[in-house]
């Protein structure tokens, strides 16, 4: 019911910036929160930022002040502007979307991921 496609990953030097995008295609379903998660080598997948339909946001401490998540509710698109990148940000970044049913979470959807590498 939901297709998520990420784009924008790549190689960036420390201190640089990168903008990730995620386009969600939904069929007869109500998408609630969306967000970005990441998984570094040898680590668990972790939250980066989430954003609700009314653009309420939540950030991981590591992302606060450096990353900004935004959303176009009309077309179910989200972006992640990443500034002041550091090697610790190197990870595969996954787009996330949650569908709703009767106001409650119904299903989770994940994109295929896009690799962000921060290295000099």
What does this structure look like?
This protein has 120 residues and is an all-beta fold. It is built from no helices and eleven strands. The strands form two sheets. Strands 2, 4, 5, 6, 9, 10 and 11 form a seven-stranded mixed beta sheet that branches. β9 and β10 form a beta hairpin. The radius of gyration is 14 Å and the shape is elongated. The mean pLDDT is 96.
Write the layout of secondary structure elements.
Elements: E1 2-7, E2 10-12, E3 18-26, E4 30-39, E5 46-51, E6 57-59, E7 67-72, E8 77-82, E9 91-101, E10 104-110, E11 114-118
Parallel strand pairs: 2-11
Antiparallel strand pairs: 1-3, 3-8, 4-5, 4-9, 5-6, 7-8, 9-10, 9-11
Any descriptors?
mainly beta; seven-stranded mixed beta sheet; four-stranded antiparallel beta sheet
Provide a compact summary of the structure:
The protein has strands at residues 2-7, 10-12, 18-26, 30-39, 46-51, 57-59, 67-72, 77-82, 91-101, 104-110, 114-118. It is an all-beta fold and 120 residues long.
N-to-C span:
40 Å
Order of helices and strands: EEEEEEEEEEE
Quickly count the helices: 0
Helix content: under 10%
The chain-level mean pLDDT equals 96
Poorly predicted tracts of residues = none
């Amino acid at each position: 019911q939901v297709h998520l496609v990420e784009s924008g990953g790549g190689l960036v030097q420390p201190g640089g910036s990168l903008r990730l995008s995620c386009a969600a295609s939904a069929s007869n379903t109500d998408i609630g929160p969306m967000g970005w998660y990441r998984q570094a080598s040898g680590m668990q997948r972790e939250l980066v930022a989430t954003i609700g339909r009314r653009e309420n946001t939540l950030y991981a401490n590591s992302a606060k002040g450096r990353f900004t998540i935004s959303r176009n509710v009309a077309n179910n698109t989200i972006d992640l502007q990443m500034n002041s990148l550091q090697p610790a940000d190197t990870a595969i970044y996954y787009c996330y979307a949650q569908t709703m049913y009767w106001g409650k979470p119904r299903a989770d959807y994940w994109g295929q991921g896009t690799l962000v590498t921060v290295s000099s």
